[in-house]
Write a structure and sequence with these properties.
This protein is α+β, with helices and mostly antiparallel strands and 459 residues long. It contains 14 helices and 9 strands.
C-alpha cells in the first residue's frame, strides 16, 4: 500500500522534528494530520513488524555502503544485534488490557518490549532489526512449574531467537560478506536459545549464568573445568569497569581465562571466557559493588588475547546501548504516558517512536567514541542538503572556542551543533551534552531539514 507507506514515512519525519515531551495533539497541531496519525496507528495493515521491516531495508543499504568503504580489510563486515527487554507499564488502564508484568493485581498492567538494536563494526547504534511485544496471559500467572512440559516456542525465552528466521532471509539479500553477531544478557543463557542461534547460523555472545555440565560422562561442570584445565589460555590486563551502584567507572586489574568446551545439550563446541577482577583493585578503591566476575559463552573463536578482549568489549557495550535506548523511549518519547484504547495501536506507536529515538542514540555514541569520524558514518551523513547546511549552522551556533574541540565535517562537529541547538552552553562550561539535550537539538535540525526537503521536492 504505497499511500499507507508514504503516510507512515511522513508521520515518522514529523515525529523526528517535534518535541516528543508533548502529547500527540500538541505534536500534530493540525487536526487533519492528527486524525491521519490515529487512523494509521489503528489501521489493520499497520503492525510493528512492518514498520521495522522498512528500517531493516534501509539498514541493508547502510551496511552495504560501509562494507564498500572497508574493502581493504580482509575481514567480513560485522553486524551486531544487541538484544534486551524493558517493561512498558500502564497501571490502572481499564480499557487497555495488556497482561501482567510481575504480579496479578488489577493495576499490574503492561507489556514486555524486546528489541534488537542494529550496530556496526564499531558497536554504534544504526537502527532497529527486530521488536517484539509480549503480553503475559493472566491465566498463566504462577504456573512456573509447568514450564518443563511446554514447547520452547511457547516459552517467553523464545523471544531471543524468534527474529533469527526472519533475519536469515534479510541476511541472504545482503550483497557483501558479513558476520552477524547477537549479544544477550544472562537471560539468554538457555540451551534452546544457544541451539537456535547455531541452527540459524548466527554468531552469539551470551553472558552465562548456569554452571553447565560438560558433554563427557564424568559429570564435570564448566566453571571447575575452566579453573583446572591446562589447555586454557590466560592473560592479565587493566580494564575500566562500571560500578553499578554509583554509576562511576574505575580502573581494575583483571585476569582472564579462555578456551573451547563441549557442553551437555549444546549442538556444537563453544568458546568460554572468564574475567575475574583481582583483589588488589578492591583494596585500592571505594567501590561498593561486588567484584566483577563475568562468564561469557560465544561461538566466535577465542585463540588470542586480542580476540578475547574484543569479545569483552562487544559484550560490555550492551549496557550503554540498551539502557540508553530504553531511557530514551521512556523519558524522551514518553511511551508510558501515551493514551490508546487498543494494544495494537499502542504497540504500533512504540515501534514508530523507537525508530525515531535510535537515530539520536547513534549520534551520541559515535561522537563519544569516534569524534573524528567523518559525518557519513551516521545515517544523516548521506543527506546532501545537510552536508550543505552544516557550514551555515557552524557559523550560526558555534563559537571559536567550540571549534577547538572538533574538526569540520566530523561527527563531533555535528554533535556540537546539535547540542547547541538543544540549549547546551558549550563544552568549556558544561562538558559533554547528555542525550536529552542532543534529542532537543536533533528535533530542531530535523524540522529545518524537513522544510528544506519539501522545498527541494517542489522545485
Amino acid at each position: 500500500d504505497r499511500r499507507l507507506n508514504r503516510r507512515c514515512s511522513d508521520l515518522a519525519k514529523h515525529l523526528q522534528s517535534s518535541d516528543l515531551g508533548l502529547g500527540f495533539p500538541g505534536i500534530f497541531e493540525q487536526k487533519h494530520i492528527l486524525k491521519a496519525f490515529y487512523r494509521a496507528m489503528n489501521n489493520e495493515k499497520v503492525s510493528p513488524s512492518k514498520l521495522i521491516n522498512g528500517n531493516r531495508e534501509a539498514l541493508a543499504e547502510l551496511f552495504s555502503d560501509k562494507a564498500q568503504q572497508n574493502l581493504s580489510s580482509n575481514e567480513p563486515c560485522r553486524i551486531y544485534g544487541y538484544e534486551d527487554t524493558t517493561m512498558g507499564k500502564y497501571p490502572g488502564r481499564k480499557k487497555l488490557e495488556l497482561g501482567y508484568l510481575q504480579t496479578n493485581s488489577d493495576r499490574d498492567n503492561g507489556v514486555l518490549i524486546h528489541t534488537m538494536i542494529a550496530c556496526d563494526e564499531n558497536r554504534h547504534p544504526q537502527g532497529i532489526l527486530s521488536q517484539q511485544f509480549i503480553h503475559r496471559d493472566r491465566s498463566e500467572f504462577g504456573k512456573k512449574d509447568q514450564r518443563a512440559s511446554r514447547a520452547f516456542e511457547d516459552k517467553e525465552s523464545f523471544k531471543w531467537v524468534e527474529p533469527l528466521e526472519e533475519l536469515s532471509q534479510w541476511r541472504k539479500g545482503l550483497d557483501f560478506e558479513h558476520r552477524f553477531i547477537v549479544v544477550m544478557d544472562r537471560e539468554g543463557d538457555v540451551a534452546s536459545v544457544i541451539n537456535g542461534c547455531i541452527d540459524w547460523d548466527t554468531d552469539f555472545i551470551i553472558r552465562s549464568r548456569h554452571n553447565r555440565l560438560l558433554s563427557n560422562s564424568q559429570r564435570i561442570k564448566l566453571r571447575e573445568f575452566v579453573a583446572q584445565s591446562p589447555d586454557f589460555k590466560e592473560a592479565s590486563l587493566s580494564r575500566k569497569l562500571h560500578d553499578r551502584k554509583s554509576g562511576a567507572y574505575y580502573e581494575a586489574e583483571c585476569h582472564i581465562r579462555y578456551g573451547q568446551v563441549d557442553l551437555l545439550d549444546i549442538k556444537a563446541p563453544l568458546y568460554v571466557l572468564h574475567l575475574e577482577e583481582m583483589p588488589q583493585t578492591r583494596s585500592k578503591s571505594n567501590i561498593s559493588s561486588e567484584a566483577a566476575s563475568w562468564w561469557i559463552l560465544t561461538s566466535l573463536p577465542l585463540n588470542s588475547p586480542e580476540q578475547a578482549i574484543q569479545a569483552l568489549d562487544d559484550y560490555e557495550k550492551r549496557w550503554t546501548i540498551t539502557e540508553d535506548f530504553h531511557k530514551a523511549l521512556k523519558t524522551g518519547a514518553r511511551i508510558e504516558d501515551r493514551q490508546f484504547d487498543s494494544a495494537k495501536a499502542l504497540c504500533n506507536v512504540i515501534s514508530l517512536l523507537s525508530l525515531v529515538v535510535v537515530r539520536i542514540l547513534a549520534l551520541r555514541h559515535i561522537s563519544d567514541q569516534r569524534p573524528e569520524a567523518p559525518i557519513n558514518q551516521i545515517e544523516w551523513g548521506n543527506d546532501k542538503i545537510l552536508l550543505n547546511l552544516i557550514p551555515k549552522l557552524d557559523d550560526k551556533y558555534l563559537t571559536p572556542r567550540d571549534r577547538e574541540y572538533s574538526k569540520p565535517m566530523t561527527v563531533m562537529r555535528l554533535s556540537q551543533i546539535v547540542a547547541r541547538m538543544g540549549g547546551h552552553q558549550g563544552y568549556a562550561q558544561k562538558g559533554r551534552p547528555g542525550w536529552q539535550t542532543l534529542y532537543l537539538g536533533a528535533q530542531k535540525l530535523n524540522s529545518i531539514l524537513n522544510t528544506l526537503h519539501s522545498y527541494a521536492d517542489i522545485l
